[in-house]
Amino acid sequence: MLRLLDSWHNIFSSSISSKINTLTLCLSMFLIVSLIGFVILWALYLNKLNMRINQTIQMLNMIPMKMLPKGRTDIRDFFNWIIREANKNKA
Hints:
Order of helices and strands: HH
Structural class: mainly alpha
Number of domains: 1
Radius of gyration: 31 Å
Largest sheet: none
Helix content: over 70%
Number of strands: 0
Strand content: under 5%
Distance between the termini: 80 Å
Number of helices: 2
Shape: rod-shaped
């Protein structure tokens, strides 16, 4: 009877350890694939954001300096107005 319980325990332990190894491998693969997917999506988002920033800078570079108001806050308001108008035209 003791040998039967011993053999059952050995079989059960090896079965459990192999399932734990399989689950650990599956979890590791899921985490790696999720991380790679996140990095790819983040890179695409940053690329799109970079393109929009560059377009805005190019648009602002076309403004002649003589057109700018004299005060610093006026210049900031002027640029904000230009950016708002450009975004309205895109939508």
